[in-house]
Amino acid sequence: MTPAFDSAPAAPRRTRIRQTIDRLRAAIEDGSWPLGSKIPTEPQLVEALGVGRNTVREAVRALVHAGVLECRQGSGTYVISTDELAGAVARQFPAARLAEVVEVRRAFEVEAARLAAARRTPADLAALDRALADREAAWRSGRAADFVEADAVLHSTIVAAAHNAMLAELYASVGTAMRATVAQAVGGDLRPDRYVDHTRLIAAIRAGDPARAADEAGTFLESTSGE
Q1: CATH topology of domain 96-219
Q2: What pTM value is reported for the model?
């Protein structure tokens, strides 16, 4: 689908390219082009944006370089990330060792747990209880993919309870890498020896004990299990 873009005002070439990048990014951020979708063809974008072919080409190339779009030979251009930070992280992940990713998770998640214990609201606690219950149910289901997603939701809910918008945005940018560490840790089947209980972590946040919450969050990330 091609969104209805306003006509681009006359501007110097570099400014037109910058404006076009912003308009393409806005279409991704507002959901007009969801993650995984194919964006309109170059001629369609030229017509919709009211700019030249070279301007569209350079704007798309910039978003490809940023890791937001991906050109697939013979198929088209697809949305592979909803923001440039996540795209940059995704480019780094294939070359990163599992231990490095876990270290980054630890930096975010330990501080998030500490802040959540100090700042959580009744609504946050209810959300944490739901996310923990969903994680437990996903484990019992035996479906690894469901568990990985439920585990990610629980950790994101803890980050949200920290009430730090910058931390939440940065943590979201490592979401794909974080899920990959959990998927690698649990493997294709959910064996009892790979289970990591998060009940004590949520209890520490509920108790309003920042030191204990940070300690619990760090404990399961001491090794490279990542779960």
Answers
A1: Four Helix Bundle (Hemerythrin (Met), subunit A) (1.20.120)
A2: 0.64
